[in-house]
Amino acid sequence: MSNRLRELSDELKALEAKLLEAGGAKRLEKLHSQGKLSARERVDLLRDKGSSMLEIGLLVAYDQYEGQAPAAGVVTALIRVQGRETVVVANDATVKAGSWWPETIKKILRAQEIAMRCRIPIVYLVDSAGVNLPYQGGVFPGQYGAARIFYYNSIMRRYLHVPQITAVMGQCIAGGAYLPALSDVILMVKGTSFMGLGGPNLVKGATGQVVDSETLGGAATHTEISGVAHYALDNDEACIAKIRDLIERLPTSTRAVALLPRDAEPEERAKRPTPTGGKAKVRAGKSGGKAEDLYDVLPADHRMSYDMHAVLRAILDNGEIDEFQEGLAKEMICGDARIDGISVGVIANQRGLIKGREGEKPRFGGIVYAESAEKVAYFIDRCDRLGIPLLFVQDVSGFMVGTEEEQEGIIRAGARFVEAMATARVPKVVLTVNHASGAGYYAMAGQGFDPDFILSWPTGRMGVMEGESAIQAVHGPALDAAKKKGAAIEPTVEKAVDEMRADYEHQLDAKFAAARGYVDAIVYPENTREMLSLALRATLHNPGPHLGPFVLPPHLGESI
Question: Hey, is 192 helix, strand or coil?
């Protein structure tokens, strides 16, 4: 029997390895010959040695532009710098000179939203030739065009007081120069960096003036004459070291201090007491709580059942969860747990056929019923009141339909579920392990409701419905008619069915979602706990509310 999760993971790892090569060895060699480091080398030097990195949007645009825009030419990630969770944005000069594609803008905006939502520093490592001119129509205009980057810069600087540090480590031309100008601190590298509204060629064309890059906008010009920049460093390494020093000096969030020490081994943290007042329930099972065993949890066929508790055992501290209303609406698992010592309220979809109470019909796992919607809504409200972050583990196929559910008020109960989730002020982190379909995906903190982070396994399947359901909805009458007559399906109908099935399989693939930014990152079973821990720690720097891309303080201009 095939191992679907392992096969998809191996396929994804091969794709990621290719994307990590960025512009290729020759362009990297050229960069090094100029005395510069690559974007990924800079990020690796910036982050604490041996620390975790959650890369946001590695797969974005991988299946567009004939493969010429790996990672959309920009590295965006959540890392730790001097023990502090920090967002980094690094232009990749090996990809079209670091120029901005339409998807580059989306990635930068998402990185800024994470910094604003979590109230954590953001570092820009700029090395970009500016707008990729053939695609300017998707970069320059619009509400979510490049201008929004500068809008977010301004909001962070004036009202949110989110630290912004920019290092100009190569080109920084035209409107892109406003990004550093709207930051708190600007660093430049002697001899290799340039910042200006126009380069020497544009200046010559516009004014007739002949000037070299260094005189026009080099490190010496901007730190000794114009005063635009604040520090001039000898090379990339010295520049990164200075950024680390600046971040080390920032005051520490009291909530971050209250967390367990980051230098503790993950295994040690996992053994610390659970958050419950009594003894937490330990569920024994074949997984044994090992991440590697997660590869054997999901069935080969995504439609088949499995025990969600086996997944939870491997990602929660000690594999323990103290379930809330365990005997009620068992298709939805709710409970208190910890991840890396951090208290979380877990909401997960149980799969399989769920045995009902005496005299009641069994329920289908992965489906939200009126009773389960009410249970989860109450649990969310309770976590919100107590300030407990929420972790949604998605394998949901939608809400139940039919006469009984309509008469029980599934619409009202579903709306209550959605409202509780949407208005909860605590951090919300999502992990999609299998299905994420229909309104159930929305209720389980879908992307449109601004969860702080949304992660997926390679097996994640995001769509309004599964392909076979869509085929039945569109071509059902024709298929049923042929079946009743005992006749063959008409060739045109058969072709349409095959095309729809293929389209859905392609669009339901987790890589399709990741390429379009519908998830922040695809993670693997073995690093799920690590990535969830990093994401949760980032969210806890902001006491809340965690609503929308950012929330202004009660009194504009007041320090957070």
Answer: coil
Give the DSSP per-residue string, 194-260. EEESS-HHHHHHHH-----HHHHH-HHIIIIIS---SEEESSHHHHHHHHHHHHHTSPPPHHHHHSP
Task: Say yes or no to pLDDT of 421 above 90.
Answer: yes
Whole-angstrom Cα distance, residue 410 to residue 497?
32
Tell me the CB-side half-sphere exposure of residue 121, using CA atoms within 13 A.
27
- Each residue's pLDDT tens digit, 335-386: 999 999 999 999 999 998 888 788 888 899 999 999 999 999 999 999 999 9
Per residue in 279-330, pLDDT (tens digit) is: 344 443 333 467 778 898 898 888 888 999 999 999 999 999 999 999 999 9
Cβ atoms 306, 352 nearer than 8 A? yes
Q: For 131, left (φ over 0), alpha (ψ -120 to 50), or beta?
A: beta
- Calculate the alpha carbon distances from 224 to 181, 228, 229, 304 in Å: 16, 9, 9, 67
User: What are the E-state strand segments in 305-369?
Assistant: 322-323, 332-339, 342-349, 353-354, 363-364, 367-368
CA angle 385, 391, 396 (to 5 degrees): 120
